Amino acid sequence: MSILAVFNQKGGVGKTTTSFNLSAAMRRDNVHPLLLDLDPQCHLTMLAGVQTQLGTSLYGFYKEGRQLTDLIRQLPNGFNLIPSHIELCKMDMLLGREPRIATKLRNAIRSEMLETPDMPIVFDCCPMLGVLSINALVAAERVLVPVAADYLSYQGAVQLSHTLTGLEHALKRKFKRRYLITRFDKDRKTSQEIVDKLRDTFGDDVCDTVISESAPLAEALLLGKDVFQYDAAKAAADEYTKLFEELVGCGFLPIGD
């Protein structure tokens, strides 16, 4: 079973888009993931069309002591979602000094036996290293880092690599990492230059699959659909299918293990 954190400290790199569409690719393979929206911006929750109150979101878990299993929404598209709420933005202020707060999510997943062979867990993390992202990284076995094909995103990926290495020392364990190139434009010279720099820097940790920037991909999100639900996004759907197959094939996503 896989617990995957989709994380980058830089915004605008396709983190939620990746979480949403990679999970949709899992669903097409008859795998029904559990998604946790750990971003107070609630983008994944909004994409899923879910309306939440404080107590029925992850805020209820962190501040009201509710169990994760009580918060799971089973959605018509085959996803299982624990939604976010804007009030999660206060977690660093409210909980940052609590002892053992970093392990709260990991301990709950284990005690509630949410680790099952047929339900991967996907964390859509917020783009900052605070209580919520630390909780996700402590609980996760693997980190997928979306990196847009531009210079600032490349620099952000290098900084994030240092952050993850520091956390590895603190946690005394290694993260399995993959860097996913997103927002790639084959007609833009700098896009290929950034791809080359990423591969030179991170080697085999960079996914072979590249997610292209496209209007249909953006349109699908605007409609609250994944790329497999939107006929015009077939090219993007093919890329996310290829990404899923690559991650399973190399053992990064041990589906069914």
From TrEMBL:
SUPFAM superfamilies: P-loop containing nucleoside triphosphate hydrolases (SSF52540). Residues 1-175 form the AAA domain. Gene3D superfamilies: P-loop containing nucleotide triphosphate hydrolases (3.40.50.300). Signal peptide: none annotated. This is ParA family protein. It comes from Leeia speluncae.
